[in-house]
Amino acid sequence: MEKPVKSDRISNLPWDVLNSILVHLPLRDVARTSLLSRKWRYKWTSLSQFVIDDKCFPYSLPDKTRWGEIRRIFHLVQSNHNGPIEKFKLAAYCYPDHSDLNEWINYLTVKGIKELILQDFSFIRRFKLPSCLFSCPRLICLELHGCILKLPPTFRGFNCLKSLQLAQVSIISETLEYLITSCPALERLTLLNIDHLAILRIRNQNLKYLKIDSEFEDIFLQSSPLLASVDIRMIPVDGRSMPWSEERDPSNLIRVLGCLYGIKKLTLSSYFIKVGHSNEVIRPVVDFLKDQCLYNFFFSQLKVVRIRGLCGTRPELEFLKLILAHSPVLEALTVVKYGSERVPESLLLHVERASEKLKITSLSL
Question: What is the pTM of this model?
Answer without folding.
Answer: 0.81
